[in-house]
Structure prediction request, 230 residues.
Amino acid sequence: MSLKLNDPIEWAVSDELIPYEDAVAAMEARVQAINAGEAGELIWFLQHPPLFTAGTSAKPGDLLMPDMLPVYETGRGGQFTYHGPGQRIAYVMLDLKKRERDVRKFVCALERVIIDTLASFNIKGEARDGDRIGVWVDRSVPGGMEREDKIAALGIRLKKWVSMHGLSFNVEPDLTHFSGITPCGVSDPRYGVTSLVDLGYPVSMDDADIAMREAFETQFGPLEPTKAPI
Prediction:
């Protein structure tokens, strides 16, 4: 079996900021419907108001500024991350029973979505083994310290092999908000966060969406536009 199917996946885009709790409730309802055979797969592009989320591996000490922004506990894997305007969230609700029951392969395919999206803007993104899940950009300079910045974070959860949550891709978020947490638990000063605009690429959200949609289709199959869940 392959992660890519010929059957279209529904694809929705929300233009307004979606409150986190509302988005999670809509996602959970859709996943339940997929498992019940009452709805098809969905990839949902959206943005949240500024907030922090804590994954199942989050350490309390990595929340550096508890009063900075609202904090939400979430069932996804991973540690603390930031969501906010200018960051494209992709909630990925796919049925791995129809594709392939291989969590690592699924995570690698999501990383590949971001790597291919970056490649469309002539940016080299790379995945890393071990604890540094996500997609990174080399910011090292000749003769200087090694440096890599994360441009996309990943965190998923499976319910009866249907995926929830997904990825966050930094297009033009307020990067100062990441100072309130240790992003994804990585405190080494060689590793930071970046965005397309921070890298010097003034890419609009619409342009990023076009590239990301094509990358999702390459990995998982055709996307068919539909109305957002909320």
